[in-house]
Write a structure and sequence with these properties.
Elements lengths: L1 H14 L4 H7 L14 H5 L18 H13 L11 H6 L2 H9 L2 H20 L6 H8 L6 H11 L10 H11 L11 H14 L12 H13 L3 E23 L2 E4 L14 E2 L4 E5 L1 E3 L5 H9 L8 E6 L9 H10 L4 E6 L18 E2 L8 E3 L2 H8 L21 E23 L3 E11 L10 H18 L6 E8 L7 H7 L9 E12 L3 E6 L4 H8 L3 E2 L4 E2 H9 L15 H9 L4 E7 L18 H6 L8 H19 L7 H18 L1 H6 L7 H4 L3 H6 L7 H33 L8 H19 L9 H7 L29 H5 L8 H8 L3 H22 L1
Parallel strand pairs: 3-8, 5-6, 6-7, 7-9, 11-12, 11-13, 13-17
Antiparallel strand pairs: 1-2, 1-10, 4-10, 10-12, 14-17, 15-16
Helix pairs in contact: 9-16, 9-22, 11-16, 16-22, 18-19, 18-22, 23-27, 27-28, 27-32, 31-32
Length: 860
């Protein structure tokens, strides 16, 4: 028995060194191998593969046929290799990964696996959901909030009134029944935050805040808030030379004896009475009242043979400013008409319900024409005793006072300034967007003439930043960069912005829009917008979503009832009173938006006097009807914030060009009407070839005859009409491009998405360079200075170089102010006509045509 078992074992070992086929051939069919005997069961067990067990026979008597078959089957199941001698111990010690690899080497397994993977891919592609390019783009950048989500969240974060308050009792009952907790209140109420900012900015004011170095605490406060609210913050600092106001004095003399010497301060304040950029000076002379100091007033004085040269002029200012003239321009006109010194004051309407302190208000301003004579702003209370020395005369019954005095009174005025070096600092904070095609800039100025200004423009901007920071924490990523800027030196003719713009790297990307918030953004209840007409549609649409006055109606309804949704689109003269916007629109050729609540004397109980300490925290909140509930501040925060989000989240730049060209066409029609007589006198004049033969207007006229002046005038009119029609097609095309971005496609139509992406990039490039194409360039200046012999004289380049919007140079004549608003569009063309310069008039018509032709070509 033992010998049989031993033989079996040796036989198995020999087979272990051969392949399976050899094993099958060498095993005789008649070999009897007693595989199962009770005493040797443990030895047999070690030969069995682990993957499959062999059940021993039920009897101890061996059956030769059965045993032979089972032995053969057992040997077949033992794996073997050709590289090494296989043993049962070797197989048992193999790792699972090795066994899997051996299994994977079988061709059948590889084919089955490949077919399975292909089947899975086909299945997934078959049921892959349709997506749009806009959705893919947002997913790629891990943006989970849609435009609607962001707008809704912003309005909720800036909500003034809790909509749940009206139903608190019902909600509390329902919550108690359901076991729910009451909804948590917002951590910071928007009105509390507004009030806190107003108080802080008021407390940080200095005697005056003309540049950053005058009040470093204020500069640091704005900068620290930018950083705290998550903005990537940077500052730009410039050294400047300026004159600091020290003191001013005024004396009324009678035969060299001082009979009246008021203190030139407002009640409870020590801010000097001054005109910024003033000079040291002192003068003693007779004085004359010149009414509002307009050319028509000086003409009347000359007509009445009243001598005004070398006298001190007393000029009254109108609260309504119906003549659209700045205080600085009045100072310049006075100097041109022979003044040796100047006093200005605001004449108040005694019929108005006024604060008793109003007649003590001093309104400061900027000496932007750098006059050299002493000039002092005073209050109505200060000037009243001097005006009472003037006699009453029926010849000037439409004036408040007669120009001359009854006796030999004289005035002595003295201004003292200190020349100094100062630091000017702009603060820029950025929320990074995911697209790099253009930036949205929101700005307001930090400098002020007084020590009591609450800087409501900064309060609005800071509150928008705070809300945007909360949106970012919720997962918002704006499509475009949003920049917030605190400008310095804006009251110095936008000195901070001009110095910043002189460095070309500061504006590397196109600017989609500049949204300006006036320093005194809340001065009344009249909702006022001055903006580029390409934004008219979005400005009106956004107001529909802004609740107003206890949520009882919308800002759209309020605005519609107020003045039928009026937007001032003439960006010439009106921007003269908003200098930062003027620089962006006229110099940087950026479409602007300027929004505020202005003062309306017919509706508002309180009067606003600019650049005075009268405008302060108490005036804003404690004067009835201004903003005692902070509703106007909250409204502008929500409106401007939602406007920025709308412009940022629109993939295709949200411009409408048709209103822009309609306005331009109307401006040109007004030009033809205004200058009709001058144009008709030149209608048959032949235009020299050197002025026109290379131009587009000559090619479009398509004539071999000499070109007459009236032909190019009419051709420009026709072409503006054609461009207006083409702009409507262009706007419709951009709408289709926007719709293509949100259209869903299956995966196999990916090339459609690529097509929409290309259209999207091209449309945005054209739109973002829209205003830039209307800017004068080096080639244009060469043409403007072109001579008949082909040479070009050297001429000064214009700082404000838009071909459509201009601010005409100041002129000392009545006609200038009569047509001033009209001539702030196509101003250079008006100037050439008024100067009776035929060749320059032709050049400007040719140049305007060329610019609009290039723009029209891009739109087609």
């Amino acid at each position: 028995m033992s010998g049989d078992i031993s033989g079996t074992s040796n036989q198995s070992n020999n087979h272990g060194s051969t392949n399976d086929q050899q094993e099958d051939i060498n095993i005789p069919s008649n070999v009897s191998t007693p595989l199962v005997q009770s005493e040797n069961a443990s030895e047999i067990q070690q030969f069995k593969p682990q993957q499959q067990l062999v059940t021993p026979p039920a009897t101890s008597q061996p059956n030769n046929t059965t045993t032979s078959t089972e032995s053969t089957s057992l040997l077949r199941r033992i794996p073997s290799t050709t590289s090494t001698n296989y043993t049962e111990d070797n197989y048992d010690s193999m790792s699972i990964s090795t066994k899997i690899v051996n299994l994977a080497k079988r061709p059948s397994f590889i084919w089955i696996s490949c077919l399975g993977i292909i089947a899975i891919i086909i299945f997934n592609l078959t049921f892959l959901p349709r997506t749009s390019l806009a959705r893919d783009y947002r997913r790629w950048h891990d943006i989970h909030l849609t435009k609607s989500d962001v707008e809704r969240d912003f309005l909720q974060l800036t909500s003034v009134y809790d909509s749940d308050n009206d139903n608190d009792n019902d909600n509390n009952k329902n919550n108690n029944k359901r076991g729910k907790k009451k909804k948590k209140k917002k951590e910071v109420n928007i009105k509390d935050s507004i009030n806190s900012f107003l108080l802080n900015l008021t407390d940080l004011q200095n005697e005056y805040n003309l540049v950053a170095s005058d009040n470093l605490k204020l500069t640091n406060y704005i900068q620290s808030n930018f950083k705290k609210m998550g903005l990537k913050t940077e500052t730009t600092t410039y050294s400047i030379h300026d004159s600091k106001p020290i003191s001013s004095s005024l004396k009324l003399l009678n035969k060299d004896e001082t009979v009246y010497q008021p203190k030139l301060f407002e009640n409870n304040f020590k801010t000097p009475s001054y005109f910024l950029n003033g000079h040291n000076g002192s003068v003693i002379n007779e004085y004359v009242y010149v009414n509002e100091g307009l050319p028509k007033d000086y003409n009347l004085l000359k007509k009445k043979n009243i001598e005004i040269k070398d006298k001190i002029f007393i000029i009254s200012n109108d609260l309504d400013n119906k003549n659209n003239i700045t205080i600085g321009e009045k100072l310049k006109l006075a100097e041109l008409n022979g003044a040796s010194g100047i006093l200005t004051y605001y004449q108040l309407n005694s019929n108005l319900n006024q604060d008793t302190n109003l007649n003590s208000v001093i309104s400061r301003d900027f000496n932007n024409f750098n006059i050299s004579i002493p000039a002092i702003p005073v209050s109505e209370k200060i000037i009243k005793p001097i005006l009472e020395t003037l006699r009453n005369d029926e010849e000037f019954e439409n004036w408040s006072f007669h120009p001359r005095t009854n006796s030999n009174f004289k005035l002595e005025i003295t201004t003292i300034f200190k020349n100094d070096s100062s630091k000017l600092t702009n603060i820029i904070g950025t929320i990074k967007g995911i697209m790099n095609d253009g930036d949205i800039i929101v700005g307001t100025n930090r400098d002020s003439y007084t020590n009591n200004n609450p800087l409501s423009g900064h309060v609005i901007m800071l509150e928008i930043i705070r809300s945007f920071n909360l949106l970012v924490k919720l997962g918002w990523k704006p499509l475009r960069n949003i920049k917030f800027v605190s400008w310095d030196g804006s009251n110095m003719d936008s000195l901070g912005l001009k110095m910043y713009s002189n460095i070309s790297s500061n504006f590397k990307k196109p600017i989609l829009s500049y949204i300006n918030i006036d320093q005194d953004a809340i001065i009344g209840s009249h909702f006022q917008i001055t903006a580029n007409s390409i934004f008219n549609h979005v400005l009106k649409k956004t107001t529909k979503f802004i609740p107003f006055k206890n949520d009882s109606f919308t800002l759209f309804q309020y605005w519609n009832k107020q003045d039928n949704l009026t937007i001032e689109n003439n960006l010439g003269l009106p921007l003269l009173f908003s200098t930062d916007s003027l620089v962006f629109q006229h110099h940087l050729n950026t479409p602007i938006i300027n929004v505020k609540f202005s003062n309306d004397q017919k509706r508002d109980n309180s009067i606003y006097l600019p650049n005075s300490n009268y405008y302060n925290y108490n005036w804003l909140l404690k004067q009835p009807g201004i903003d005692d509930e902070l509703d106007l501040h909250a409204t502008l925060i929500r409106y401007l914030g939602l406007l920025v989000i709308s412009l940022s989240e629109h993939e295709v730049v949200d411009y409408k060009t048709e209103p822009y060209f309609k306005q331009a066409e109307q401006y040109y029609k007004d030009f033809l009407t205004c200058e009709g007589d001058n144009l008709s006198s030149w209608s048959n004049n032949t235009i020299p070839n050197y002025l026109i033969y290379k131009s587009s207007i000559f090619q479009d006229l398509d004539t071999n005859e000499p070109v007459k002046f009236d032909q190019i005038v009419q051709q420009l009119s026709n072409f503006l009409n054609e461009t207006t029609y083409q702009s409507k097609i262009f706007d419709d095309w951009n709408i289709n491009v926007e719709n293509g971005l949100i259209k869903d496609y299956p995966w196999y139509l990916y090339y459609k998405k690529l097509q929409h992406f290309a259209q999207f990039k091209v449309s945005n490039y054209k739109l973002l360079h829209f205003e830039k194409d209307l800017k004068l360039n080096d080639k244009d200046y060469i043409y403007l200075n072109l001579n008949e012999d082909g040479s070009s004289t050297t001429g000064n380049e214009l700082f404000y170089d838009s071909i459509i919007f201009n601010t005409p140079d100041l002129k000392n004549n009545e006609e200038f102010f009569k047509d001033r608003f009209l001539k702030s569009t196509f101003g250079n063309l008006y100037k050439a006509i008024d100067d009776e310069n035929f060749e320059m008039s032709v050049k400007w018509i040719v140049l305007i045509y060329e610019k609009i032709k290039n723009l029209e070509y891009k739109m087609t």
